[in-house]
């Protein structure tokens, strides 16, 4: 195709784009205009409250996030896509309910999604350009300041749930999002109706109560922020609430009723790596920096660095049931790490030793009771 497209040609092209998107592995493709003006006040209010924490990039880019046309001049539409990532062997309960294991958010068990989605989006753009050589596009996968969820919502990919994630009646929320900004005035899709109703399960289940109001997240309290985005010390009052979650948190998705309809991924790259699927904390704790970098090559986890990795595991070990082997492992690393990690080791050791002392006292009481012939709960 050459020159300007007619309305009927644009409609045909939009249908082709959705078909090509599905052929490239996207479960749903929607198209929207770039007007996000109504989200600017909400974004500014969120920033003013400091809910972005140490994510300085959120504040630096300001309202640019709500003005996607400025990211790629000439763009008039966003092609929004989603791709399922939930693996068949998610092992939620098996990992979360065992404090000797480390829980890793299910999206991070396999290969880093950024490159995979961006490559597929570029392939989609190339197909469009082959059809119409005046097409100009730019793919985005968390690679620039853009409000991807409002775009996905406008494009009909789902509605924004009270946990601030995009939800779909047929697929839940276990999917990645990506966008292709383009200069073609394609016909747009309609948003779907919000369907959270009076349900507030995600707000109730959040371990740190980070969902401070419906559709409002205080990232400073969110375990995903604490274990991934935060580079310094984790607030001490939040550490006990983190349990064994060492990279991200899925609780608000796990409890969501719509996720009973979640679709499994068919992307082999998202299948769990064997040493990240139900991993033993003490085993992960032994990784030196070289091992960390080698085993997490191509994983999104690698981006947090070895220091934050140790910090997160130290917190999880501090939350584990008191055990001499845990105390020994913490002591083994003590004095050989940065001051930031050492602070978390000291905290974990204090909790472990306190727990061990309580167990010892309980055993002594039990022995005394048995020796006196008293009931064991005396």
TrEMBL record:
- Molecular functions per Gene Ontology: 4 iron, 4 sulfur cluster binding; cobalamin binding; epoxyqueuosine reductase activity; metal ion binding
Keyword presence, NAD: no
How the cofactor is bound: the record states: Binds 2 [4Fe-4S] clusters per monomer.
Q: Which Gene3D superfamilies match?
A: 3.30.70.20
| Coarse class of the protein's main subcellular location | cytoplasm
The family database entries (InterPro entries) matched by this protein are listed as:
4Fe4S_Fe-S-bd (IPR017896), 4Fe4S_Fe_S_CS (IPR017900), QueG (IPR004453), QueG_DUF1730 (IPR013542)
Q: Which residues bind [4Fe-4S] cluster 1?
A: 196, 199, 202, 256
Cofactor(s) annotated in UniProt:
[4Fe-4S] cluster; cob(II)alamin
Q: What class of enzyme is it?
A: oxidoreductase
Instruction: Cite the binding residues for tRNA.
Output: 231
Q: Which domain of life is it from?
A: Bacteria
Q: Which family does it belong to?
A: Belongs to the QueG family.
Q: Which reaction does it catalyse?
A: epoxyqueuosine(34) in tRNA + AH2 = queuosine(34) in tRNA + A + H2O
User: EC number(s) for this protein?
Assistant: 1.17.99.6
* Compartment list: Cytoplasm
Q: Which GO terms describe its biological process?
A: tRNA queuosine(34) biosynthetic process
Q: Active site located where?
A: 142
A GO cellular component entry from the record:
cytoplasm
Residues in a coiled coil are none
Record protein name field: Epoxyqueuosine reductase
Could you give the subunit structure recorded for this chain? Monomer.
Species: Idiomarina fontislapidosi
Question: What is the protein's known function?
Answer: Catalyzes the conversion of epoxyqueuosine (oQ) to queuosine (Q), which is a hypermodified base found in the wobble positions of tRNA(Asp), tRNA(Asn), tRNA(His) and tRNA(Tyr).
Keywords assigned by UniProt? 4Fe-4S, Cobalamin, Cobalt, Cytoplasm, Iron, Iron-sulfur, Metal-binding, Oxidoreductase, Queuosine biosynthesis, tRNA processing
